[in-house]
Amino acid sequence: MTSPNPTPAARAAEPNPRQDAEDFDVIVVGGGPAGATVAAAVALRGHRVLLLERQTFPRYQIGESLLPSTVHGVCRILGVADEVAAAGFQRKRGGTFRWGRSRDAWHFDFALSPRLADPTSFAFQVERSKFDAILLRNARRVGVDVREGCRVGGVVADDERVHGVRWTDPGGDSREARARYVVDASGNGSRIHTHVGGGRTYSDFFRNIAVFGYFAGGKRLPSPDDGNIFCAAFEEGWLWYIPLRDDLTSVGAVVSRSNATAIQRDPAATWRRLIDACPEVKGLLSGVPQATETPYDQVRVRRDWSYWKSTLWRPGMVLIGDAACFVDPVLSSGVHLATYGALLAARSINSSIAGLDETRCFDEFEARYRHEYGLFYSFVISFYDTQQDERSYFWKARKVTDVGSTDLEAFVELVGGLASGDTSITGPGWASEQLEAFSADIDAAVGRLADSDGLRNPLFESPTVRRVFQEGTVLQERGIFGCPLEDEEPVRPGGLVASEDGLEWIDSGR
């Protein structure tokens, strides 16, 4: 029953009996990679999709380094791989790191994985304004009703489910649209994610700050790794160095919250000081001026706080992308997690509309999404732990042995798969042991790189690394060959598996 004096938040969620509301099968809020992916994947099944985007594309966005799973998996499934390949983005063979016990840089190559064929063992460094516009244009092409300059202010809901959204069009008029499902892909600043219930759990371990900008060029790593992202650890944190074009390089520093005052006082000066404190990156930028072309002429700041939602869906509504979760960007996993979560959501929506049990569909979405995020989250914690710098406040505070009990309890809740029913998780002690084991495995694999014969990649022989990139490899196989090379197993007893085209769930019978 509706309160006689509802709060503004309650009014925003109440059903509205207006007769002029538009009707769709699905409404997507946000047109970034997550929103464009889910919208296109649902439209490819013939459903009516409305996508509402607050900005007008092309628009600036951070997060330029992709993984092969997006390029050769998701983009092929959506039918946009050729356009992405023709866009002229910088090709990357992997990542180069000055990180860990060795003072020499080492490489993480996508090639030499036993399951990644050489023709697809690469990804791209992309200008997100161009890449995101390609994905959004593709969504339009496959039938999505894309409307830019539209701000969503609330959802239409009752106690049972979400029925639609209220939004303001570019002319300032209030509008309403209804649908069987609302997908929130509106990013970390989402105004509607609270309507699925639950809260955001913030990681104490990753409460960092990123300050970043661009240079008009810069030296490149020796070929064939000249397109790689370069991540260099130094005493105060780590720096990324991403070659976007011959005349454009993205450079950012990830540091602790103790730098917040200096960054707020003068972001550009602090950014320059942090670059100068890392000899490897400073040397690549010697004599190179800061970029002056718009929008790369600014130094920007972002709270680099990893988080996840305790609830990712409710009847009629689902969260994806940064509205659902975010993890430290050292492994370039942001766009992968966003588009992967979007594809999972699309499978659940398509299957539910086709008649499969809604709860079963979206429990599968949540279990898989939480599982994939948990893999990257634990990998990044363990990867941080391999950095050997006992003098540094930043790195001492980011050792596995110093992860707080509250953070470990939150981690157990995350990977214990409240959605997956995993009963092997017993508590923070188990989590600490697992993270230490992961760290030792990664460290040993990196140590074997120097002795590699060039015919194998010790990193992909590491159980930890294989586990993290397994689902991305399956996405690539599905995009390239039309199905995985091996029969897909459900991730939990009685779970679902993807259809051959990757757009629906089917019952595995196991």
Automatic annotation (TrEMBL):
Signal peptide range: none
Annotated keywords: Monooxygenase, Oxidoreductase
Pfam family membership, one: Trp_halogenase
InterPro entries registered for this protein in UniProt: FAD/NAD-bd_sf, Flavin-dep_Halogenase_NPB, Flavin_halogenase
Similarity section: Belongs to the flavin-dependent halogenase family. Bacterial tryptophan halogenase subfamily.
UniProt-recorded name of the protein: Tryptophan 7-halogenase
Organism taxonomic ancestry: Bacteria, Bacillati, Actinomycetota, Actinomycetes, Kitasatosporales
